[in-house]
Amino acid sequence: MNNNDIDILIVLSHMGSGGAQRVVTKLISEWKKNRIKVALLIGNGIIDPVYEIPSDIVVIEHTRHIAKKSYFKISGIYTILSSLFKLRSAIKYYKPRIVLSFICPSNLKTIIAASFIDNVKIVISERNNPDRQDFPFYIKQGRKLLYKFADVITANSPGAIKSLKKYVPENKLKYVPNPVCMPVSRNFHLNDKGNFNILYVGRLVQQKRVKELLQAFILLKKKLNNVTLTFVGDGPQRSELQIIVNDNSLNEFVKFVGHVSDVDKYYTSADLFALISKYEGMPNVLLEAMSHGVCCVVSSEVNETAELIADYENGFIIKDCSVEKISEKLYEVIINKKIRDKIVRNARESIKNHSIENVLKQWSDALEI
């Protein structure tokens, strides 16, 4: 691919596990089918990608992740300046029509690096509600100061759009939901042991309340023996969670499978999906679970779920995320098969506007490609 063949240069900090990474992978695949030429500039090159990148996609190594504590040290400042120079050099070399960046820190770098380069449209994508996201002060201020200089700002939830209106011209804002590939069918079954399978997919971090979910499961086991809990994903809390499992002799019933490239088989064998985060953007994992017809239990603090979940219609919402209340909600869902069956039937139907075809059209409109 020649350096002047690029239509879209995507900028991303890494290709490890994450919602933005999953969306980027889907977009690259679909744009490739439509003969839109894409290059991918990521912070750690192709080291340990969780999601498969097509072999003919140009992957540019940018600069490695900068630890938060290093930003104001001489080494950190040098690394940031070097990073901006490399990013700007790559944009000038590949001459893309569009630079598309994902996630706030990368967005800020992209706006600075791409400024005053002729014939390049700067598009940034916000993946969480800025009002609820826990970034350092200087990142939050940078967002308020710099986002307005991008040509287009996309967000994957109405809540994020509303938040961004405080400091970004409304005509630059575009709501583009996350895409989901709808499975052809859903196999409803219990596993071979006749257990009821509870599934969590995502990072094992405090934001996701995975420890509270595990503690709620421990309470649930006192009422129901035939339940299992599977964690798909990894993160800094894994070792702590494993200790809790060991201490309660639950290794037979709680499984940690780490990062996997094929999550579909876990959705297919799941009976209930739990997402009780403190905040989210528009969760890919929730869309994927609903597309597979899995009954979903979601925290009301994930404001964007109001766009997806109607309580007792196509999912269940937890308003009190204490361990006891989480356990009570899980128990309620498990024993009410009639309501659960209705939820499952409605879930797939309610997210059809998130199909890859519909979302791809919205991306095309936002990018004008």
In words, what does this structure look like?
This protein has 369 residues and is an alpha/beta fold. The protein folds into 2 domains: 8-180 and 356-367, Glycogen Phosphorylase B (Rossmann fold), CATH 3.40.50.2000; 196-350, Glycogen Phosphorylase B (Rossmann fold). The chain contains 12 helices and 13 strands. It has a 7-stranded parallel β-sheet, sandwiched between helices. The protein has a 6-stranded parallel β-sheet with strand order 10-9-8-11-12-13, with helices on both faces. Strand 8, helix 6 and strand 9 form a beta-alpha-beta unit. The radius of gyration is 21 Å and the shape is globular.
Briefly characterize the structure.
With 369 residues, the protein is an alpha/beta fold. It contains twelve helices and 13 strands.
CATH fold call of the largest domain: Rossmann fold
Envelope shape: globular
Summed up, the helix count is 12
Q: Give the strand order, joined by hyphens, for the main sheet.
A: 3-2-1-4-5-6-7
CATH superfamily of the largest domain: Glycogen Phosphorylase B
What can be said about the biggest beta sheet?
Answer: 7 strands, parallel
CATH architecture of the largest domain: 3-Layer(aba) Sandwich
Count of distinct structural domains: 2
Rounded mean pLDDT score: 87
Task: List segments where confidence is low: pLDDT < 50 over at least 5 consecutive residues.
Answer: 64-71, 187-192
Instruction: Give the percentage of residues in beta strands.
Output: 15-25%
Number of strands: 13
> From the alpha-carbon coordinates, what is the Rg to the nearest angstrom?
21 Å
Distance between the termini: 19 Å
Which class of the largest domain in CATH terms?
Alpha Beta
Specify the helix fraction band: 25-40%
SSE order in H/E notation?
EHEEHEHEHEHEEHEHEHEHEEHHH
Secondary-structure content class: alpha/beta
